[in-house]
Amino acid sequence: MDSGNRLGDIEITDPHAMRALAHPVRLAILDRLQRHGPATATQLAPHVGATPSVTSWHLRHLAGFGLVRDAEAGADRRQRRWEAAARGFRFGARQDEEGRSAARALSREMFVRYGDLPSRWVAEVEPNLDPLWQGAAGLANTRVVVSAEELAAIQDGIERVLAPYVTREPAERPAGSRGVRLMRYVLPEQDDEQAGGTR
């Protein structure tokens, strides 16, 4: 795993690590730690749908793949605190069946976890936003016809724009900042849909 990319994400290439993360409780743990910072298994448990002992087991499993690590001790030094190893993660399939299968398993679990996030946002968050934030929010569904190399360049360009905002320290954020979820699905279509090249 390598966290040397522009956004500081952990790069997951090991199929075993992908399969380890392809679990609802583990994804919930990692999401919670990335969003709210260090916590103990007991603090995480009510938010991830598991008991403290089960949460602790999942944390150790994630730590075995370098996805979480020990955080600085809190006020109660008897309790082990955990933190995410990076702000985010990305994964790609190796060119063998084991890698492709593991990447599909993790993709499926992520779609299950985050698939209803937009509709929940519309129902629970958007009605309470002030007009400035409502105007800044948005949804787009853009289709392009590109080569694999051009798609990689698009992805790189998006990351280049995002990187300064993702990696800046909390003290550098302007007043009135809040967390914003930028969901990016990059879904190449089937070859038969691309055959025309102009649709």
Structural account:
- The chain is mainly α and 199 residues long.
- It has a single domain, classed as Winged helix-like DNA-binding domain superfamily/Winged helix DNA-binding domain (Arc Repressor Mutant, subunit A).
- It has helices at 15-21, 24-36, 41-48, 52-64, 97-114, 117-125, 131-136, 148-167, 191-194, and strands at residues 10-12, 39-40, 68-70, 81-84, 89-91.
- The strands form two sheets. It has a three-stranded antiparallel beta sheet with strand order 2-4-3. A two-stranded parallel sheet has the order 1-5.
- The model has no long low-confidence stretch (mean pLDDT 89).
Highest-level CATH class: Mainly Alpha
CATH architecture: Orthogonal Bundle
Based on DSSP secondary structure assignment, what is the total number of beta strands? 5
Per DSSP, the total helix count is 9
Strand order of the largest sheet: 2-4-3
Annotate the secondary structure layout:
Layout: E1 10-12, H1 15-21, H2 24-36, E2 39-40, H3 41-48, H4 52-64, E3 68-70, E4 81-84, E5 89-91, H5 97-114, H6 117-125, H7 131-136, H8 148-167, H9 191-194
Parallel strand pairs: 1-5
Antiparallel strand pairs: 2-4, 3-4
List keywords for this structure.
199 residues, 49% helix, mainly alpha, single chain, 9 helices, two-stranded parallel ribbon, 5 strands, globular, Arc Repressor Mutant, subunit A, three-stranded antiparallel sheet
